[in-house]
Amino acid sequence: MFALAACDSDSTPIVRDAAAGGSSPGAGGAVSGPDTNKLGPNDRLRITVFGQPTLTGEYTLDGNGVLAFPLIGNVPANGVTTSQLQQAIAAKLQPDYMVNPNVSAEVITRRPFYVVGEVQKPGNYPYVSDITAVNAIAMAGGFTRRARKNDFYIRRLDKDGKMVRIEANAGTVLQAGDTLEVRERIF
Fold it and tell me: What is the distance between the alpha carbons of residues 183 and 187, in angstroms, rounded to a whole number?
């Protein structure tokens, strides 16, 4: 077993699912709901400021997960929920521009997830809530004949923003932005 581990030239640390995700959605079978998924780069949102049609619209987070919003400028949104973003926008609008602003935010589209390795059609795919590794592999056309069919890696940013590899199985739930790696079997 030790000799085979030496063949893995990837220096990305391997962690257990719960350690990588902490309280993030999809970690260790955590329950996901309408407001448990964190926002990230390239997520597209519909933001409504009630009574203010010029501020209401569709916005896309930039590559760093920052929202550029009229009047108030940049709002950090990477790693926050839509409820937290609503509160941040309202807090910035209230002192200078509005009295008691009512803000709502909903995700229109999330950043994609990626499937690489021993699948028929590697690439990026639109994120679907609560998608498992085996469903993602099905979207990618299924396994090649050389694929390991019982264990995978998921590359994900941990809570500190560092890339880690998570040991996964067919039932592991993916998050938006994850990369599912289907490895080649040895024999």
Answer: 12
